[in-house]
Amino acid sequence: MEVSSPRTLAEALDEMGAQPATVPLAGGTDLMVAINFGRERPERVMALRRVEELHELTVNRRVRCGAGVTYTRLLEAVRDPAMVQAARTVGSPQIRNAGTLGGNLGTCSPAGDTLPVLAALDAEVVVRSAAGAERRLNLGEWMRGPKKSARRPEELVVAAEWDPAGSSQAFLKAGTRNAMVIAVANLALVVDRVRRRVGLAMGSVGPTILRAQAAEDFARGLFEEAGWERPHRPSPAAAERFGALCAEAAAPIDDVRGTAAYRRHVVAVMARRALARTAAAV
Amino acid sequence: MPRPDAPAKVRGAFDFASDLRAEGMLYGRTVRSPHPHAVVRRIDTAAAAALPGVRAVLTAADVPGKPFYGLDKVRDQPVLVGVGETVRYAGEAIAVVAADHPEQARAAAAAVAVDYEVLEPLTDPVQALAQGSSLRNLVIRRGNPEAVAEVVVKGFYEVGQQDQAPLGPEAGLAIPDGEGGVDLWIATQALHVDLRQVADALALPPERCRLRLAGVGGAFGAREDLSMQIHGCLLALRTGRPVKMWYGRDESFVGHVHRHPAWMWYEHGADREGNLVYVRATIVLDGGAYASSSHAVVANAAIFGCGPYRVPNVLMWCGAARTNHVPNGAMRGFGAVQSCFAHESQMDRLAAAVGISPLEIRLRNAMRSGDRLITGQVVSGAAPVADLIRRCAELPLPPPAEGRMALPGGAGNLAEAADISRGEGWALGYKNIAYSEGSDDYATARVRLERRNGHAVALVKTAAAEVGQGLVTVCQQIARTELGVEEVELEPADTLIGDAGSSSASRQTWMTGGAVREAARLVAEEVLKRAGPPGRGLAGGQVVDDEGAPLAPLALLLDEPIEREFEHHHRQTGKLDEDGQGDAHVSFMFVAQRAVVDVDPEAGLARVAQVATVQDVGLAINPLQVHGQIEGAVAQGVGLATMEEIQTREGLIRNASFTDYLLPTAVDMPEIVSELVEEAEPDAPYGAKGVGEPPLIASPAAICAAMRAASGRELCRIPVRPEELSGVSETKPPRELIPGQPPA
Lengths: 282, 744
Description:
heterodimer; A: Uridine Diphospho-n-acetylenolpyruvylglucosamine Reductase, domain 3; Enolase-like, domain 1; four-stranded antiparallel sheet; 11 helices; 14 strands; B: alpha+beta; seven-stranded mixed sheet; six-stranded mixed sheet
């Protein structure tokens, strides 16, 4: 196994262009586990931690979060509550110190905790290669299947970008353990009261992160009716309907972490609670 | 009282078995069957042997001695499954390789070509028992097995398969001695038990195999059976080089036995006041492919299967099925954990049916000294069960949970305080100490007293395995107490001294502790003989008189060192007769536990807020360590009740990693409150009972009872899964069985 450790993005991209079979290594919280278990034996690994450009994080009118930003930094520096809550649910402090947003995007697991948040925020995944132009993809375009992304072999994820969406956001995750657990199901709800937009995305209930469009439309109606500027308390019937629409949009399976029936059930529970929390927050 | 191994462990400097190295060391690796049931038709090692760095590729044909190992009297597990022989579980060893580098060993193992004729696996234990595929069936009949009662409750209960999950995986280092013998540094629970199996497989006299205890990273029963011991020695003897083997986490899941999963059908009868009239029960355990400890686990599940209560009439049927699963065997609690979940769930049902509290039903039926077990054995020692219950009820309850992290779902940010309901649950448990059913249970210790730099130093040698439980501290304390010296050194544990038995069955304080005490007393006797009258005792490094006044420094009497050895046997136990009656056990330890659990019934998530434990310990030789044992046992109880389960489908383990086999984290740990009841046990050295197992026996049942109270759901299976706690699904018995009757 050959390991390289470029210092600049240009260097890293050149190397990816020359050796497209290279496996990028970010925090190593997925890749090193796969190597230790003998599931992967990459010929070439490129460690990205020393690439300064990937650590850049700007939080102004538009958030640009470098691929190398760790969960710990997301927790400290990003203001979107759903992203903060999602970053907090990842692993242990050690794992949050190592794991990165770019790694979450690169692994592209349907259980990736920041991915529903990026989807609900309508974030863009920024990828680049040495030869080609920068590409920007939304989460739907990025995720092609379980652990299958739209990254071309010569490309690297360089950042994710999104518009900050205010404080009416929630991220919830159901797992059998109270910390350090891979989601049995998770859900992000972003209500952008300024742009009058609702984003709802769910993880671990399908091959990719799923948006629940009917639920988003329904919630938009609720906020329209209650007034986007004002906090409100959705009626039990409205919450029930919203939850049911989310559950309908889920496409879960039975696996070692949970059953399809429970996943559908708990998506509805999380959706109701997320709606109540975001409706109450202005 | 500082633990001798603590500073190194805290600093990260302690050498665990997987840290061992030797000059010129090779790396061993095991080729394992991917099929749970198959006949090996051909093994081709040529390609593997030709790979770079490969020094040996061995198969069953290379085992010079007895080709089987195992803990049972009939050793039934093949060292390696050979051509024409049958694989009985997925992960069974077919060949072993040794190479210069671990990656070369891995490549070589992958290059061993094995042809299998795949057979249908037998994976349903009830079906297996019905067709006679059994490792042991046991019936206990007491009083009138057909007794009738005014109040009757029935229930079905299931316990999932728990892993001991020691943090240190299986590891050892075998070094050939150049004269045909071998030294094996090994993380184990019982050096001599390993030695007998290793020496037989190698066809060597036991004195030419020296087993030496390497740093043990947790055991909990997982190191009772052999893992790499024979394989490592075979490779070392064949190559003439040191060979290290250590399992990865995934391999570890097939590399050691697990707790027997259980399916239990119970019926309890009582009078209108809640006094037990009868218990009838059928307990099905999955023993897996080989015997391991199933024989004794069956006995324990059955004998303790009614709980620490007076039960006049009993019909109990318990069997361990032989299936095509990884063998199940010893794990902390050893059969009593499984049946405790059933009998305690039944006691709660009975309380509800009679209309009294869970506490009251237990007090009414609590066992006392002089009562009989369901095997007819009289509990001759301490049995302060009612006292345990009352004291446990007096322990303070926890305050309401504060902050989202403290609520069910924890970091998942799922619940608000308004979503939560809190429940309380009770359970009692009990179990034997030490070996049973007529085993000659003994331990050996050698104590030496010598002068060093002008003062007396005691050296203690045993073969007992320190597996984290704190035996090293206890042995030092005993030597200090008996010899009145400050400095006590523990010599390395190895097979150069006689057997100490296994660090299991909560027995080492009693057995090895007892041997150390007796050896030290023999040494003290010699010191006093040398001192002559009026010397009557040893204290503070001095020979003292009747009043404790110092007469002479001990060191002055040690021109010649004094060394004594003692073999300590416990009172002989007996076998069970055809009605399951007999004095099979030497002593019993009891526990009462109360759990408080917060439940989010809608989301189906739980968080254990507190577990209160009051435990009967005889005498706490080291109270801090006893409380430590309680904390550790409760952690495993929380795990079994709420998340820990090996999931198997068609004979294959589906979650062989700590990503998907969930263990409680610090966030999942409840507040632990505990109190010890010290009523000296007549037979035991210093009156001290064992302490390691009881808080893991009752806590899963107590936690599940609290989850029932909080959620209002039946919950007949542990670990309680979110889909059951939320009411999305419900466990059903795999089939209807009549309690007390075998599967037909």
